[in-house]
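User: Predict structure, ligand magnesium ion.
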Amino acid sequence: MTKYIYEFGPRRTEGDATRNDLLGGKGANLAEMARLGLPVPAGFTISTECCNHYFELGGRFPDTLEDGILKALANVENEMNMKFGDRENPLLVSCRSGARSSMPGMMETVLNVGLCSKTIPGLIQRTGNEWFVYDAYRRLIMMYSDVVMEKADQVISEDGMGIRLNLEMMMNNLKNDRGYENDTDISVDDLKGLCDRFKKKIKEYLKTDFPDDPYDQLMGAVGAVFKSWYGKRAVSYRRIEHIPDSWGTAVNVQSMVFGNMGNTSATGVAFSRDPATGEDKFYGEWLVNAQGEDVVAGTRTPNPLNNDTKNRQNKHLPSLEEAMPDLYAQLFEIRNRLESHYKDMQDIEFTIQEGRLYMLQCRNGKRTATAALNMAMDMFDQGMIDEKTMVCRLDPRVLDDMLHPIVDPAEEQKAAKVAEGLPAGPGGAWGEIVFTAEDAVQWAKTGKNVILIREETNPEDIEGMRAASAILTARGGMTSHAALVARGWGKCCIVGAGALKINMETRQVRAGTRVFNEGDVFTLNGTKGMVYEGRLKMKDATENSRFKQFMTAADKYRTMQVRTNADTPEDARTALEFGAQGIGLFRTEHMFYGADSDRALFLLRKMILSQSRDERQQALDELFPHVKKEIYETLKVMDNLPVTLRLLDPPLHEFVPQSEKNQEEIARALGIDPEEVVRRSVLLKESNPMIGHRGVRLGITFPEITRMQVMAVFEASAQLIQEGGSPLPEIMVPVTCNEKELEFTRKIVEDCHGQTLETYGLKTLPYLFGTMIEIPRAALIADKMAETAEFFSFGTNDLTQMCFGFSRDDIGSFMNDYIDNAILASDPFETLDQEAVGSLIEISVERGKKTRPDIKLGICGEHGGDSASVEFCHRAGLTYVSCSPYRVPIARLAAAQAAIKNGA
Ligand code: PEP
Ligand code: MG
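Assistant: Predicted complex:
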């Protein structure tokens, strides 16, 4: 019989932090905290395995589950000295979701389960607080009708509003009618009346009665939490974060403790260190007389936890440290214990019920990139973690944020400020303002930069948040949903900009006397929490001395080299600053796209449209000095470092002149009619240019094109040697599928090499000759390819294209459907498909090494900058990865972590 239920509490705890997969993060950590002897209200976790079985059974509980729940509930009753559904001394429970990795706000929670006509009088009697009981009841009704009765059963409402909004409107109307400012001002009689009217509305709206049996409520809530695993928000979040559907969610059923029992009760969220900066300061927010959802939902602006948490916006509000010093001291002590136990920054939720502190959650907290770096280095300095752990603490992807632009401080000084809020997500961003998530998605699709403005944070907005360049909210705190999600993504985000008054009807936002319309441009400084009018310049934020120090530590463990894909001396210089150890791919054709390349492009076109050998040779002779100069300059920047220069690999049609003016110019140069140019262009048209006359095939048809480029490489190198340099060129042949293509090209290369030695009077001119492996056939005959090739570089863009048969230029039209339907976990052009494309790489490595044991092996497809793919490259035994300059630090860190994880 499968064990589905794991208990936790002061006297008996079955799970612990290592059982994350089975119990979900929340369940595993509740168990761990209980084991540490911290004040955790008793409860039990229903496993993720049970969730999976529930779906396998078509949305039915496994047979043994209900009995198991009753037994576990009896133990909780014993621990708490209360009884679920009891008339006199009723126990209430919460049902919360909890997946393996945290998905903030993406799944459902139901609180106060067990409150019904039978238990209400008893609870009033015991607490002596009628207001509290009816407030708890109205919350149960609102949550339960929404989560269990509507969403879980996928009821589509006729008015399109849903039950929750209807009930919220009823409550707001009541507050307006009676002049109540806050929820806490509502009188008991009004609350009672409201609960009755809520239940009538539910019956009328959802055509079912609100359940009045505590066990029905409990089982309904458990099922609804399971079902929320396949809720729209959760599914979108998983697709974005590449979390597999097969993980499932656990359900945590736990005795309720109440932060809303009056002024000696409170609730809060805290981080053991500052999640924005990483400073070693206890950081958090709290509310008196409230339930946890009030802090996270951002409906009330929370108070600062302590002095360290005070800022411009909240400094007038009372801190917990001031209001309840003893309880704060106890919480602070727990913070220290948790940090030294987990050896990482913890995100904790707590509740104070009538002067007693309870811990409701702890987990490794989300943080900004800068905070992650600072915390890891501080914890290493403080002796909490060793250096390898420090290196592994940073997800390589977050380095992106540190390398991302910030608002130029000089411009910022002069800028017109619109509002101030809390700095929830780092860096700077600008964009046109939109007011709904749908608009953010739509506008972004048309290539616009957008900033999503919302009143408060709402997990339903997830797709829009993703699409936007930045997120701005008028309400909410640093722990609100938008703040957590944005921080996790490293997205620029400001929350709680209270001066903004949003009007959803007119799609306008007012700040003081000024009014802004949809489409107006704002710039956000997410590091400071400042909102400005118009578009401000952005600036590079890479000058962080600690960043360099961290990367140096990481480099100690790395065994793979990291090179860059660069086609200009400028890119090469940038990459060197980021720590590149050479160029892994210099795409020769890119020298015809850049600035000041009009003349070169013209000559290239002339060459392409030549028909006789003489015509072509003349064009090549004219082109030669340009190609040589570009190569010379790049080799010079990369002196003493390897530079892989790839022979021309352009689909020819890309370079054919399109405009009449260009056609006439070429016609004049070739001494032919413009019509002839059009005719020759038509001849170059191919049905499948990606697998057409490109790469090595060009050089087979026109060996003189290869010769011109190779001469340019050798002459540029010879000149550098004469000037005292040490160039290390590597000549690479693209799009090969047959060893004879390599032999054919090698002959030309050797001939050019000999000729250059002679012309320049040199004894040696070192170089390597190698090939891209980007066609499956080449991968499979790697042993033969290695007879001629001294190195392989895996062109995983084309290798993916040809392995899947997916056109790399056309995946936009179907890739999302593959991801949405969970056919693929991620886009294989972004993250290497280890199963098949990876197999091709492994086969090539093995066969290539058989022929040439010291063969150099690299990757230069886009995957070279993707951390998961880098780890694969390490395991496959590659010599280096190569990626775009800005991704070099990511690749360096990913390679170091791969080495550590694989036992360096
Ligand atoms: C590749 O195919 O992976 C590659 C690096 O070459 P390109 O992207 O230029 O085709
Ligand atoms: Mg390619």
